[in-house]
C-alpha cells in the first residue's frame, strides 16, 4: 500500500508540477503579447513624440510669411517694343513671365491645372491628407515616386523655398501651404500659381533660349497667342508640362544631323540646331483631358474634340524678340531706362530690379525697317573695302573675334531726337557687345562745321566771308613752321567760306576759328566749346580738367581741335546728334531711345520727353545747311548724294578723315533723317580708303531708308535773301569781277537779311601791263606791248619770299608788284625811246609800205580770253591721270596732263583755258575720254 501510495503521490506531485508549469507557460504568452503591444505603443508614441518634436522644432524655426505681398516675389519679364508696338527684345532674365489677373485666365485652363495637379483644391486647407496617404500607399505598393503636393504647397516651394528634395523642405512647404490658405483666397492662390509655375522652355540655338514662367508666357512661347485663345487641348498640354517641364515641353532642340523626315520641324534657321515637336507631350496631354472629363470639366463632345485636335499643327514657337537684330540698340535702351528710373527717384538697386523683373513695357523709338537695312548692309563685306581675309578668302578675325575694319552708324529723326536705327559694329551678334556708336574716335574734318563754321555764321560772318588760303603759322609750339597743312597739299588763295567748306580747307577752318575772337569777347576756344557743348558734345577736354598721359598734359584748347585732333574724340552718337541740330533749324534735341515705360499693370511710370535747347537761329542753321549741301553737291561729300543733282531729297553733310587715315567719317542729313557713319580699325591702323568709303556706305544705307519718301527740300525760314557777290572779296561785284581772267567771279550767295554786303569789291583792279614780261606798265613801256588786264589785289599783301617761295593757286592773277624796266624787259634788245611819237588811237603799223595785196585785219569779234573749265563729278577712284585736249578741226591738241587724287582733290577737276570764239575740249581719265564740252569765249 505504501508503495502504491508513494507512486500515486509522486504521480500527483508530477501532475501538479506539470500543471503549474503549463499554467506558468499559459500566463507568459499574454504577458509577452501585451508587453510587446505596450512596447510598440510606447515606441510609436516615442517616435510620434519625436516626430512631433522634430516637426515642432522645424515649424518653430520657419520664418513667418505675409502672403498678401506675394507678387513682390514674382519676377515678371520686361519687354522692349519698337515704334510700332512689336516686340523687339526681352530684357534678359532667366525666363519670360507675363502676369495676369485671375479674371483674365480662362476657366478651362484653370480646370486643366486643378484636374491634374490638385483635384480637391477647392476643399482642402492647404494640405490634402487623403492624397498624402494615397500617394504613400501607391508608392509603397508600386515602388513609384508619386507626389502629393497641393497647388498651395507647389506655390510655397516656388516662392519661399528651394527645390531640394528633403523631409525638412516638405514639412516647410506643407506649413507654408496651410499659411497661404489662411491668408489668401483660393482665387488669389490660383492667380499667383498660374503666373509663376515653370512650364518649360524653347532653345532656338545653342546659345539662345526662352523659358516660360506662368501660363501667359507659355501660351505666347509655344502657340504665339494669349491664354484666352487657347483650346481645351492646348490648355491641357500646358497643364501637363508642370509635372516635368524638361520632359513634357511640346518642343525640343536637336542637332541638324539628328533630324529625320519623321520630325515636325518648327524652327530651322540656326546653323547647328533645329526646333522640333516633342511627341512625349501627347500621352501627358491625354491624361489631363481624361482627368478633366472624369471630374466633369469637359462633357463627352468637348472631350472627343480635344482628343482629336492636331496639337502639333497648332504649335508656333515664338522667339519673343524682333528677329535677327543685334543687341546694340536694346542694351542702349536698358541703360537709358535705368538712368531715367534713377532720375525719377528710385535707387540703383530698385531701378535694376524693376527693369529685370518688374514686367515693364518699354516703348522704344526704333524703326525695325531701318534697323534691318542697317543689319543687312553691315553684313556685306563689299561695303567695307580692305576687309582682311586669308589666302582662302576667309575673314581674318582679331584677338576678340572681330572682323576688321569695324564701323558704326546712327540714324535719328532730327525733329523728335528719336533714334530710328543704330549699329555698333559689323558682323557681330550677342549681348553686352562693344558698342562703337558710343565710343569716341577722332572725327577729322567732320568736326569743322561744329567747331568753326557754325559759331562763325552765328557771330556775324557769312557764307561770303573771304579767307586767304595761304601758309599760316598758328601752332604756338612751332611758330616758324607753316601750320596747318591742307589735305590737297597746296593753297588755293582767296576763297569764300562756302568754297573753303566745299573743298575742306584746313587753313581756312583754323583761320575762321581764329577770327571768332574778333566777334566775341571770350577766348576763341571758349566760344567753340560753348557751341559744341550746346550741340551735345560731351567729350571735350578743357584746361580746368586736363588729361595726363605719360606725364604730358593734354586739352582741346588748341586749333588742332578744329581739324578733329581731339584728346578723346567724339562718338558717332554725339556727332549725329550735333549735326541734327543744324537739320532741326538750330534746335538741339538730345537723342532718345524710348518714349514711354509702363508697369505690369499698364500704368505710365516714365514719359521720356527729350531735352531741347536752341543753339542758333533757324536762319543760321539754314545757311549752314546750304553750305553743307554744297559740300555734297560738288565737294568732298559728293559720294553721299541720293540723286545726281542732289535736289530731289537733298543731302547736307561733311566728310572726315584723320591725317593718318585711321578714321573715316561721313555725317549728313536730309529733310527727313540725320545719319552718322564711322569706319576704322578697333586698334587704329591705316584704312584702305578714307572718307569716300564712309560717304558711299552712308549713301547705300540712306538710299534704302528713303525709298518711298516724297521729294522734299530743306525749308527756308523767313528773312533770307540772295545777293550777287564777288567770290574774291565777298562784297558786291563790280564790272571788273565779271572780267576776271579765270571767268566771272560773280556768284549768287545766301544771306540772312541784314548781313549782306553793302560795299563793293576792291580786290579786283584794272591795270596796264607790259604784256611780254607781265610787269606793270609805266611811261617807258612801248605802247604796242601794253595790255589792259583785270587782276586781284589782296587787302593783306602776300609775299612768297617770306614763305619759302610758296605761291597760292591764284597767285598768277595777283596784281604785279614790279614795273616794266626797259633795260631788262625790252623785247628787241634796244632801249625804247620814251619820247617816240606813237599813234594816239593805240593801233600800231610798221613804217614799211604794205604790199598791195596785203590785207590788214581789224576784226576784234573774237578776242582772246580765259575761262575756268570745271568737270562734273568724275567716276574714278584713287589717283588718276587727267589729260586736257583741245579739238581743232578734228585734230586733238594736248594742252595739259596732271595727276588728280580723288580723295584729296575732290570729285571734280578744274582747268584754266584760254582761247577765242568757240572751242571744243575733251578730258581723258587714265587714257579714256570721260568728259567733253564746248566753250564760248
Shape type: elongated
What does the average pLDDT come to? 84
Number of strands: 32
Radius of gyration: 45 Å
Helix-strand makeup class? alpha+beta
Count of helical stretches = 25
How far apart are the first and last residues' alpha carbons, in Å? 186 Å
Beta-strand fraction estimate: 15-25%
Q: What composes the largest sheet?
A: 5 strands, mixed
Spans with pLDDT under 50 lasting ≥5 residues?
A: 47-55, 830-862
Helix content: 25-40%
What quaternary form is this? single chain
Structure notes:
About 5% of the residues have low confidence. It is built from 25 helices and 32 strands. It is about 35% helix and about 20% strand. The relative contact order is 0.06. It starts with a helix and ends with a strand. With about 950 residues, the chain is an alpha+beta fold. The strands form eleven sheets. The protein has a five-stranded mixed sheet, with helices on one face. Strands 10-9-21-20-19 form a five-stranded antiparallel sheet, with helices on both faces. Strands 29-28-31-32 form a four-stranded antiparallel sheet.
Structural descriptors:
single chain; 937 residues; alpha+beta; five-stranded mixed beta sheet; 25 helices; 33% helix; elongated
Amino acid at each position: 500500500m505504501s508503495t502504491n501510495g508513494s507512486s500515486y503521490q509522486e504521480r500527483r506531485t508530477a501532475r501538479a508540477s506539470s500543471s503549474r508549469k503549463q499554467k506558468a507557460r499559459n500566463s507568459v504568452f499574454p504577458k509577452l503579447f501585451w508587453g510587446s503591444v505596450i512596447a510598440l505603443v510606447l515606441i510609436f508614441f516615442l517616435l510620434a513624440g519625436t516626430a512631433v518634436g522634430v516637426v515642432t522644432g522645424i515649424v518653430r524655426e520657419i520664418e513667418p510669411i505675409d502672403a498678401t505681398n506675394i507678387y513682390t516675389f514674382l519676377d515678371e519679364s520686361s519687354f522692349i517694343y519698337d515704334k510700332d508696338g512689336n516686340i523687339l527684345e526681352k530684357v534678359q532674365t532667366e525666363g519670360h513671365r507675363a502676369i495676369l489677373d485671375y479674371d483674365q485666365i480662362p476657366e478651362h485652363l484653370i480646370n486643366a491645372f486643378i484636374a491634374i495637379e490638385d483635384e480637391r483644391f477647392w476643399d482642402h486647407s492647404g494640405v490634402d491628407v487623403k492624397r498624402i496617404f494615397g500617394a504613400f500607399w501607391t508608392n509603397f505598393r508600386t515602388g513609384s515616386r508619386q507626389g502629393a503636393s497641393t497647388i498651395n504647397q507647389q506655390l510655397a516651394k516656388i516662392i519661399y523655398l528651394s527645390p531640394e528634395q528633403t523631409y525638412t523642405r516638405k514639412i516647410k512647404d506643407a506649413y507654408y501651404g496651410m499659411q497661404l490658405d489662411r491668408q489668401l483666397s483660393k482665387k488669389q492662390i490660383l492667380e499667383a500659381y498660374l503666373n509663376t509655375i515653370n512650364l518649360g522652355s524653347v532653345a532656338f540655338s545653342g546659345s539662345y533660349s526662352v523659358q516660360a514662367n506662368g501660363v501667359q508666357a507659355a501660351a505666347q512661347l509655344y502657340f504665339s497667342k494669349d491664354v484666352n485663345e487657347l483650346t481645351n487641348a492646348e490648355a491641357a498640354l500646358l497643364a501637363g508640362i508642370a509635372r516635368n517641364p524638361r520632359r513634357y515641353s511640346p518642343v525640343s532642340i536637336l542637332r541638324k544631323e539628328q533630324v529625320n523626315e519623321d520630325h515636325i520641324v518648327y524652327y530651322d534657321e540656326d546653323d547647328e540646331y533645329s526646333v522640333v515637336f516633342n511627341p512625349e507631350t501627347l500621352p501627358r496631354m491625354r491624361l489631363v483631358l481624361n482627368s478633366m472629363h472624369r471630374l466633369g470639366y469637359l462633357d463627352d463632345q468637348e472631350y472627343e474634340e480635344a482628343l482629336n485636335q492636331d496639337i502639333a499643327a497648332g504649335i508656333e514657337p515664338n522667339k519673343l524678340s524682333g528677329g535677327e537684330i543685334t543687341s546694340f540698340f536694346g542694351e542702349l535702351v536698358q541703360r537709358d531706362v535705368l538712368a531715367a528710373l534713377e532720375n525719377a527717384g528710385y535707387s540703383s538697386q530698385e531701378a535694376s530690379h524693376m527693369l529685370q523683373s518688374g514686367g515693364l513695357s518699354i516703348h522704344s523709338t526704333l524703326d525695325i525697317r531701318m534697323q534691318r537695312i542697317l543689319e543687312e548692309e553691315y553684313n556685306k563685306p563689299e561695303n567695307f573695302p580692305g576687309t582682311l581675309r586669308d589666302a582662302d578668302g576667309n575673314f581674318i578675325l582679331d584677338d576678340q573675334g572681330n572682323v576688321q575694319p569695324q564701323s558704326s552708324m546712327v540714324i535719328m529723326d532730327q525733329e523728335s531726337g528719336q533714334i530710328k536705327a543704330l549699329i555698333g559694329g559689323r558682323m557681330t551678334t550677342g549681348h553686352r557687345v562693344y558698342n562703337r556708336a558710343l565710343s569716341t574716335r577722332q572725327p577729322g574734318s567732320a568736326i569743322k562745321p561744329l567747331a568753326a563754321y557754325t559759331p562763325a555764321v552765328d557771330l556775324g560772318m557769312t557764307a561770303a566771308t573771304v579767307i586767304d588760303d595761304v601758309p599760316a603759322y598758328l601752332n604756338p609750339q612751332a611758330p616758324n613752321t607753316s601750320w596747318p597743312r591742307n589735305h590737297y597739299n597746296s593753297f588755293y588763295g582767296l576763297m569764300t567760306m562756302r568754297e573753303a567748306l566745299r573743298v575742306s580747307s584746313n587753313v581756312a577752318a583754323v583761320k575762321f576759328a581764329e577770327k571768332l575772337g574778333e566777334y566775341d569777347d571770350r577766348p576763341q576756344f571758349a566760344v567753340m566749346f560753348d557751341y559744341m557743348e550746346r550741340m551735345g558734345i560731351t567729350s571735350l577736354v578743357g584746361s580746368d580738367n586736363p588729361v595726363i598721359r605719360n606725364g604730358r598734359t593734354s586739352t582741346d584748347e588748341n586749333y588742332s581741335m578744329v581739324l578733329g585732333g581731339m584728346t578723346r574724340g567724339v562718338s558717332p552718337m554725339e556727332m549725329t546728334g550735333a549735326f541734327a541740330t543744324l537739320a532741326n533749324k538750330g534746335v538741339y534735341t538730345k537723342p532718345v531711345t524710348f518714349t514711354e515705360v509702363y508697369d505690369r499693370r499698364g500704368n505710365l511710370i516714365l514719359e521720356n520727353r527729350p531735352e531741347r535747347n536752341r543753339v542758333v537761329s533757324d536762319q543760321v542753321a539754314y545757311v549752314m545747311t546750304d553750305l553743307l549741301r554744297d559740300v555734297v553737291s560738288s565737294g568732298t561729300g559728293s559720294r553721299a548724294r541720293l540723286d545726281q543733282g542732289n535736289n530731289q531729297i537733298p543731302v547736307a553733310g561733311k566728310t572726315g578723315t584723320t591725317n593718318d587715315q585711321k578714321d573715316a567719317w561721313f555725317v549728313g542729313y536730309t529733310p527727313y533723317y540725320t545719319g552718322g557713319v564711322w569706319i576704322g580699325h578697333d586698334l587704329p591702323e591705316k584704312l584702305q580708303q578714307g572718307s569716300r568709303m564712309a560717304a558711299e556706305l552712308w549713301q547705300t544705307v540712306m538710299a534704302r531708308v528713303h525709298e518711298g519718301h516724297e521729294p522734299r527740300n530743306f525749308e527756308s525760314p523767313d528773312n533770307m535773301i540772295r545777293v550777287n557777290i564777288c567770290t574774291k572779296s565777298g562784297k558786291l561785284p563790280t564790272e571788273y569781277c565779271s572780267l576776271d581772267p579765270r571767268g566771272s567771279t560773280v556768284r549768287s550767295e545766301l544771306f540772312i537779311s541784314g548781313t549782306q554786303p553793302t560795299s563793293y569789291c576792291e580786290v579786283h583792279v584794272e591795270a596796264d601791263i607790259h604784256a611780254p614780261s607781265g610787269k606793270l606798265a609805266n611811261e617807258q613801256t612801248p605802247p604796242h606791248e601794253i595790255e589792259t588786264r583785270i587782276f586781284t589785289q589782296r587787302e593783306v599783301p602776300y609775299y612768297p619770299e617770306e614763305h619759302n617761295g610758296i605761291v597760292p593757286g591764284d597767285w598768277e592773277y595777283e596784281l604785279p608788284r614790279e614795273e616794266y624796266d626797259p633795260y631788262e624787259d625790252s623785247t628787241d634788245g634796244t632801249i625804247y625811246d620814251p619820247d617816240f611819237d606813237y599813234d594816239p588811237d593805240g593801233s600800231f603799223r610798221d613804217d614799211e609800205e604794205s604790199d598791195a595785196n596785203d590785207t590788214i585785219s581789224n576784226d576784234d569779234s573774237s578776242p582772246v580770253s580765259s575761262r575756268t573749265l570745271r568737270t562734273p563729278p568724275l567716276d574714278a577712284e584713287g589717283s588718276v591721270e587727267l589729260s586736257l585736249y583741245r579739238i581743232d578741226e578734228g585734230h586733238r591738241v594736248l594742252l595739259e596732263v596732271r595727276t588728280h587724287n580723288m580723295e584729296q582733290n575732290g570729285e571734280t577737276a578744274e582747268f584754266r583755258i584760254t582761247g577765242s570764239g568757240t572751242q571744243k575740249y575733251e578730258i581723258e581719265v587714265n587714257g579714256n575720254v570721260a568728259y567733253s564740252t564746248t566753250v564760248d569765249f
